[in-house]
Design goal:
With 427 residues, the protein is mainly beta. It contains three helices and 35 strands. The strands form nine sheets. A four-stranded antiparallel sheet has the order 1-28-27-26. The chain has a four-stranded antiparallel sheet with strand order 2-3-4-5, with no helix packed on it. A hairpin with a 3-residue loop joins strand 27 and strand 28. It is globular, with a radius of gyration of 22 Å.
Amino acid sequence: MKYILLFICGITFSSTTLLSQNNQWKVYNTSNSGLPINNAQVIEQDLSGNIWIGTRGGLTKFDGTTWVSWTPLNSNIKDDMVTSIVFDGTTIWIGYAFLGMAKFDGITFTHYNLSAILNIPSYQGLGQVRGMDFDNNHNLWIATYNGLLKFDGINFTRYHTGNGLIGPNNRVWSVKCDRSTSNIVWVGTFDAGLLKFDGTNFTQYFFYDPSFPFLGGLQQVNRIIFDQEGDIWVTGYGVIEFDRTTMQQKTVYTSNNGLGDPLVWGIAFDHTGKLWIGSDCLDGVFCLDNGTWITYNETNSGFPDDICYTVMNIHVDAFNNVWMAHSSKGIVVYNEAGNVGIDEGTRPKLELNMFPNPANDKIAFHKKTSEITKLEVFDYTGKLVKAAFNYKNENEVEMDISALSSGIYICKLISGSSVQSGKFVKK
């Protein structure tokens, strides 16, 4: 496929653009989908493979074929501006732009007016939710414009500058729970950098040296993710990789060394190791491929033309579709192999056999034609949960899956130059 693309590039630019649009890129908007509005804020995928989109017009679900939206006109959703989505099993939790948060069981929204619950005037911004995440103990952590909240299912605890939160104010921009430990929560602030909270104390890690002129004040942390090695990546005024053990900065990318925008938002790694970064406004979406930055916009891809290219969130699913929440053009999806979408019925049949399926504690993967060199298992959020390597002279691998939660999983099997995917169910 790469040779074909290179050949076409040598002939004509317009042909390359057309190929990218038809095979690798797809845009969902109000004209060709069930999106209630083209301003998308957040995108996540549940364990059943459904795509959930928070927009400035309500909450939308896409199962690969059917679109369903919940708005103030057809449901009891309070705030049509949904900024955050997180799952706890089959329960969906959403954060609002102004009115707190809600729990959704698929039919009814149960609302939490955070300002009223914590007796804080609404104008102080506690109801402005910026991010949400669950820890291993099912505590929900909520990033708000007026502090960090912990919800244990019954009670809320608020962390602010008066009881430990570090910074000149209480603005928390993002939150990510470290599930490799029992109690570490990573907190992105508006102007105090990255904070590590161990349940008792906050520790501060600056985005830039605070003593450095001008850059020292650019401490905004918009998004936080972990890579497969466990390092922490954050976006804000650039992209920074922190070594999680030493908390030293390993990599720093800014508009001076490849990024097309000084301020960036969405971030995700795809299954081939490429890093995807969402622009704040200036130039599209950025991809770091083997140390080289590529900017995708309407000039060289199927990315939609716009005055402002804000990509607030990026999600990579188990099929390596890169889903991008665009602030004015809807949802942009990219798949390098040209198989955009989550409808498994349109995908080629595989030679990969899995048994038993469904499985309890162990499952065997069998490839008919050649030995297995690498096997990876992803949950339906696209997170790598299991891997096996270098099975020489073998075309069958048995894997222990007893530690996995019940649900649907996608496996990616590599044998020589062949890459295949399949689905199995853990009971």
